[in-house]
Input
Amino acid sequence: MSSFTSLSVGVSGLKANQHAINTTAHNLANVDTEGFVRQQPIFADTSYIELGRSSLYIYQKGIGTDLAAVRHIRDTLLDKAYRVENGRMEFYQAQKNAIDEIEEAFGELEGVAFQKYLTNFNEAVQEIVKDPASQVTRSELVQKAFSFLSRANAIYKNLETYQNTLNTEVENKVNRINELGDLIHELNMKISKAEAGDVENANDFRDQRDNALDELSSMVSIRYTEDPLSHIVTVKVEGVSFVTESNVHHMGTKMLDTDKDSVLLTPVWPYLKDNPVYNLKAPVSTKNNNDIGSLHATLLARGNCTANYTDIPDSDDYMGGAESPVYKRLLNNARQEAASELDRANYPTDAAYAAAVEAAAQNKLTVAGINAADYTGGKDSAAYKRDLKTYQEEIEPSSIKTVMAELDQMVNAMVESMNDVLCPNITADELDQKAGAGTPLIGMTYVDASGVTRVITKDTKFFDVEKAGYGCALNQGKPSMAELFVRDDADRYSEITVNGETFYVYNDFNKFGNESLYTLGNLSVNPDLLHDFTLLPLSTKDGGEDRARAEALGDAWDSASLKLTPSHNTQKKFIDYYTEFTGQMSNAGKMYNNMIDYQENLTTGINEGRQRITGVSSDEELTNLIKFQAAYNACSRYINVVDEMLEHLVTRL
Output
């Protein structure tokens, strides 16, 4: 009986080493497979036969060996550290990619830089100052304005397009996150089934699951745990259950709800009543541990809608309460809404209609929580603090929205200042004071370009005929209302008749009744001037050069005072503003590069530590292969010896 036991000992060694050879061959076959983790055979004694006992010892004889397990060589602490730091690196990489796209749009890295167009336009203005009567300088001004604005509009459009590209990227990332969740859940089931009896380890399935966790951690912040009994990994994404023991809670997308009719998407949790995945208003920092994952970074860089100059609050515009520029603009919009809702025919007089419109407008502001008292005190005003907070939460975190707003701020200031020189305005209050005892304009009604009956207020602007300029050649002798830059769907003035007298009222709204601003995407150079630059009002009534107006155009550049952001205290001229603007982009790019370099070094170091543990060394595996092959051969020879011995005993008997 003991001889047959000896034979089984050899067979157990043969089988164990055969499994070890197969495991080593599997390692070698996957030496270049990304994400593969080396496997290590672990031998153990099977059982023992007790031969006897003494007061000191138990006399036993082993009956063989067995492959107890094929160990999956990983360091879970290194895995978790890698996934956190890799997610942080991907966050800053996504932010840097956005800055690179922006710089490419401006041509500051290669190609013709936008600054060249700005400089050329400035030079054309300065030439007009020197010689306003020259047909060459007038033509050059119109052409350079066209080139400048075309490039500015193209950049703004490219930024909008890039926003849409990032929006598609957000959708793709959400889809991929859900695919990874489904894959992890599927692998959970396979691993749990394979390892249920503690007979074998589903190491290849574990490799696939770990690779999925690696990829998932690059897009979102994750936390995960493995149940020691079921071997199922449960995953939380951004603190919310994603992969559970029984299913996957898919992430979804929902259209953003903004006041600018945005078509952009935001990630939500459908199973939590569409609760947003991210609080995009929360300050981002490593301390808050929310600078992890490319999805979050993509959302921040993209922003929630387009932006323009009105998104940058200027404390100077929050002075004077009801007379502050910001409050006046809000009140004007409320009056337009009220006028479009009220029928003039229902009121006996203009005064009654005006009172009704004003009351309705004030009520709209009150309902919206807008009070004139909040617009007093500049930086200390409640309205400025509220708008500044909105800027810090919705504009500043988005590199695209920040650039959009800052570029538009420069273009708007440039366009409005030059248009106001060429086509001067006067308020109804000033006109009434000039009229003396005549019928006052204030309180009268007129029909605007959109067909809405509006009330003339003291701040309603009109074309100032007395200060107007004139064209030259065939256009001489009649005040010119040819502005250099025009808005889409909105003429600068509409002709109205009040008490038999003709006036030209400034249009705040386009023909569709929407507020019309001199903002990128809504601007072009006056096509009349492109066709006939002699319309440019730089001449006097008698045909002479209007040097005062030309110098005022130059002053519009030299006296420009723009603050890049609310946090900037110094005011800049257009050229200096743009220099500071590009410097801001460059500094952001350098900051992200530094963060990426740091994270890359950290992540690489952690990953190298992982590879030292998990990586397959062909030299080491070949050594193991030789060792196990030699052991296999030894077991084979051992079996042959036992077999010969048994044969000898049987034949002799």
User: Anything to note?
Assistant: The first strand starts at residue 39 and ends at 45. Residues 128 and 136 are 9 Å apart (CA to CA). The chain has a mean pLDDT of 88.
